[in-house]
Amino acid sequence: MLDRLNPPALPPPFARYAHGVAVPPGARLVFCSGQLGMAADGTVPEGAEEQAALCFANVAAILAEAGMALSDIVRVNAYVTAREHMAGYMRARDRAVASPPPASTLMIVGGFTRPEFLVEVEAVAAKMD
């Protein structure tokens, strides 16, 4: 269904992601807003890896509402507040996303709405009906 695009004219991806993903005509798309590492009860774990795992759990809940799963993700945009949070985020991402992996971007940002937030994840998923 989905075609991962890693053209030989580009260097290989730096981590577990695809340079692009082609979605076929007729696929249903779901766009997930950025999810923070916060549980339904409002608790926020201290570490970036734990927050990222919650971000992906929140994305999974949104996708489930649409009859989709994390394996349907075609693109991830992620944000961390410091370079030292990248490895923890990437471990959580690699556990959450399917193989072959989606297209992905990871950025370091100055912060989020509350200082305890270290990671935010947004995703786009596609599935043929």
TrEMBL record:
Recorded hits in Pfam families, A to Z, give: Ribonuc_L-PSP (PF01042)
PANTHER family associated with the record: BLR7761 PROTEIN (PTHR43857), YJGH FAMILY PROTEIN (PTHR43857:SF1)
User: Sorted alphabetically, which Gene3D superfamilies does this protein's record hold?
Assistant: RutC-like
InterPro entries attached here?
RutC-like_sf, YjgF/YER057c/UK114
| UniProt name for this protein | RidA family protein
> CDD domains attached here?
YjgF_YER057c_UK114_family
Q: Which residues form the signal peptide?
A: none
